[in-house]
Amino acid sequence: MKKLLYYFVCFLCCSIGLYSCSNDDEASIEPQISITGSDDYFLKGVTFTSNTGEETLSFISNVDWAITVANTANGEKWCTVTPNSGKAGENAVKIKVDANDGVDDRSVSLTLRAGELTKTILVTQKQKDALTLTSNKFEVAKNGGTINIEVKSNVDFEVIIPENCKNWITQSAKTRGLSTHNLSFNIAPSEEYDKREGEIIIQSGKLSETVHVYQTGEGTLLLTKNEFSVSDRGEDIVVEVKSNFDFDVKMPNVDWVKEAAKTRGMSSHTLYYTIAKNESYDSREAEIIYYDKNSDVADTLKIIQMHKDAIILSQKNIEIDAKGGEFEVVLEANTNFEIQLPSNVNWITERAITRGLIKHKRYFAIKENTEYNERKAQIVFKNTENMVADTLIVRQVAAKLNINIEEAGTLSSIIGDKLKYKIKELVISGYINGDDIRFIRDMELGTLYIPGELRVLDLSSANIVSGGGSYFTSATGVYTTRNNIIGKCMFYQCSRLTTIHLPDNITSIEESAFSGCRGLTSIDIPRHVTNIGSEAFAYTSIKEINIPEGVTFIGQNAFANSLLSSVVIPQSMTRIAYYAFGHCSSLTNVTIPNSVTRIEDCAFYRCSSLSNIIIPNSITHIGVGAFSGCTNLVDITVPNSVTDIGVGAFEDCIKLESIIIPDNVKTISQELFKNCTTLTNVVIPNNVTAIHFGAFSGCVKLTDIIIPNNVTVIANQAFYECLTLKSISIGEHVTKIGILAFGNTEISEVYSYTAIPPSLGLDCFNNIDKSRAKLYVPQGAKDRYGSSDWGSVFDNVIELDR
Q1: Which of 117, 440, 444, 518 is surrounded by the most beta carbons within 10 Å?
Q2: Is 144 in contact with 188 (CB distance < 8 Å)?
Q3: How far apart, in Å, do the first and last CA atoms of the chain sit?
Q4: pLDDT band, very low/low/confident/very high, at 7 (cuts 50, 70, 90)
């Protein structure tokens, strides 16, 4: 490890003569020790790799000093300091460590004393084949940027960015020194309101270090309608607000716009207002502002109220099917009016007229639109005595295009360039290949200057066949069609398509087939499909989907980041793949059949609306982070068939109140229940032999815990910051309790049933009141506990009756 040099600017208030004072004068000096960057140094300590190492510590003391090395738990002296004492002035000591051939990290504290002043330096040595990060936490602004990570390692390693983070964390340039690796990562801008968290894993075999990346978000606020026109008689209006945060409202300083009484108890994003009658002969306007008090995000609603003698249409836009038909217009007017039909169209005609005193109805007929262009026109309702008027816009959608393709690859010649970007709904029968799929993609995508109009694609009577050119080309490959298969990336990022009907003879939907189709709300999976590839429906707006019986494989990320609200896994499935439903934040209902045996890593990661789930007795494995971030999960039953639960499987399940760990589970994985802030009751089965790093850290409502007899190791930070934990029972075979294992708790009593005191890591009970807390130990073990590290933690050591 590179030698650390510490230098300090001499004290301005001291002179050389100060160090030559008599012993009486020295006793009156306030001791001071100064090291460059001392705050970080004494906070972070010194870290060595597993190899023999040496560091130089330079400092200035204004009095004589001494430095000691604490005794280690097993008495091994692997760290030495020379010299161990010295005079006032500038000094330097060498910290040396022997090679660590063990499989665990080890640490020892150095105490630097100058008179009554003491400072502690923690020396940590990594296990053999270690990785060391200079920093494992980064805060990034919402606009993104670059972070640089320094990795010190004596082994080759790989960088792993989890799938759920790859869309906003990417690795860029990498440089490498003899033993130090400088890694650079790009953080994309965030479009979310809430802070998002990601991680980068530096891994070598079983060794790994995790870098946590936190990025601030930003708010989005949009009114579905920014302007209301109100008649002079007043009315109630309904305002819909789309927002990803709870917003504030600034009302105008007028007496004619008020919040309606029925607003209370309704959705905070659906607001009601009452507009008073306008008695004046002038129109009037007011604005309501919706804003985020924590940022500059805002949107404005304008209310325009007509004066007397106004004409108000009940609706300003009419959309007519391509087949034509009739529609009714209701308007309010307190004056005579006339209707001005557009002079340049012949497809709108007025029907028989009826007239009332206040409310008027008019009927219009629309001819069939046989063109593939949308068409629109304006009908003006005008006061015959002045310029008061209101306008109705009539839109008629384009015709649906039905095409039968006898020869695959001829779609472009059938439609032609003239209609290519105008068709909204396309129905195809016959045969299509790669050339046809490419043309369909172009119809949806459009060009830089001409947007594509294709929204509905019906291939239910079509046959996908091999042949033609590539339908999609990317850095990862060139893709062509195959018989009866929805190929890889076939409709990738066709974001304007809303509905797709697939051929009934399809047997496989491959990787990323519909990924990024953000407008896609409806699709049926054909009954002959057996395979759904990775990311097949990721980042779509599909809310419900029927996965047919016969599907045996669903790839990783298959439905990730979609709007699925409900899903039924078919009996033909045996496992739920990695991140298959990750970040499905609207998912509330999942049915898992008895055929499934494995729930893989991150399968339901951050499904924040999922409140309960039944895991069948067939499940044997629950993977890493499988339910992590399911912040609404209240009830889950883990059956005894489960033998393995991965790291962080229930991390951040903040509403989970209790859980029974299956009897067949033998280890409590790292951070398994981290930050389960409402967890009050947990039963650890007798077969468990180890409780790993941070397993219950942040479980702030745990009050007591029983460690069963077969547990031998309670790892670092296992119960760290369990703020209300008061009582623990430690089984008779525990030999080691790690650093900060019970740090920042309120423990007042400990029952230890081990005859030989377990070794204690640094600050294992850092927040304990040693004068009040009680330690209960086996008969005849009081002296052993009192003379061990336990004796420095507990003043009250009491032998148990049995």
Answers
A1: 440
A2: yes
A3: 51
A4: very low
Is cis: bond before 83, omega within 30 of 0? Answer: yes
The span from the CA of 713 to the CA of 481, in Å, is 56
pLDDT score, position 28: 55
Q: Is the pLDDT of residue 105 over 80?
A: no
CA distance 418 to 200: 50
Gap between the Cα atoms of 375 and 299, Å rounded: 31
The Cα–Cα gap between 471 and 488 comes to 10
Percent of the chain with pLDDT over 70: 89
Cβ-defined contacts of 565-572 (< 8 Å, 24+):
565/589, 565/609, 566/590, 567/591, 569/593, 569/596, 571/595, 572/530
The dihedral region occupied by 390, where left means phi > 0, alpha psi between -120 and 50, and beta the remainder, is beta
SS3 category, 20: helix
d(CA 81, CA 366): 95
Lowest-pLDDT range, 304-308, 526-530, 741-745, 755-759? 304-308
Token output for 550: 């016969």
| Contact call for residues 139 and 58 (beta carbons, < 8 A) | no
Q: What is the DSSP letter of 783?
A: H
Closest by CA position to 757, among listed 787, 715, 799, 728: 787
Whole-angstrom distance, CA of residue 626 vs CA of residue 624 = 5
Q: Sorting pLDDT into bands at 50, 70 and 90, what band is 714?
A: very high
Q: Two tokens at 630?
A: 């399911």
Give SS3 for 313: strand
Q: What is the per-residue DSSP string for 612-652?
A: EEEPPTT--EE-TTTTTT-TT--EEE--TT--EE-TTTTTT
pLDDT of residue 148: 82
Helix, strand counts (H, E) of the chain? 5, 64
| pLDDT of 73 | 65
DSSP 22: -
Say how far residue 488 (Cα) sits from the centre of its chain. 27
CA separation for the pair 251, 239 (Å, rounded): 13
Distance CA 515, CA 535 (A): 6
> Environment class of residue 698 by beta-carbon count within 10 Å: exposed (0-12), middle (13-18) or buried (19+)?
buried
Using an 8 Å Cβ cutoff, are 659 and 680 in contact?
no
**pLDDT of 791 higher than 60:** yes
Instruction: Encode pLDDT of 455-514 as tens digits.
Output: 999 999 999 999 999 999 887 789 999 999 999 999 999 999 999 999 999 999 999 999
Sorted by sequence, the CB contacts under 8 Å of residue 512 that are 6+ apart come out as 488, 489, 492, 533, 534, 535, 536, 538
Q: Please say whether the beta carbons of 230 and 238 come within 8 A.
A: no
User: Distance of CA 398 to CAs 368, 370, 376, Å?
Assistant: 10, 7, 11
| 499/635 Cα distance (integer angstroms) | 36
> CA distances (Å), 554 to each of 243, 530, 531, 546, 652, in order?
33, 9, 6, 13, 26
Which SS3 state, helix, strand or coil, does residue 404 take?
strand
Confidence (pTM): 0.56
Structural domains of the chain sorted by starting position, each given as residue range(s) with its CATH number in brackets: 16-125 (2.60.40.10), 131-215 (2.60.40.10), 221-305 (2.60.40.10), 311-396 (2.60.40.10)
The pair of three-digit structure tokens given for residue 87, joined into one six-digit string: 């005079």
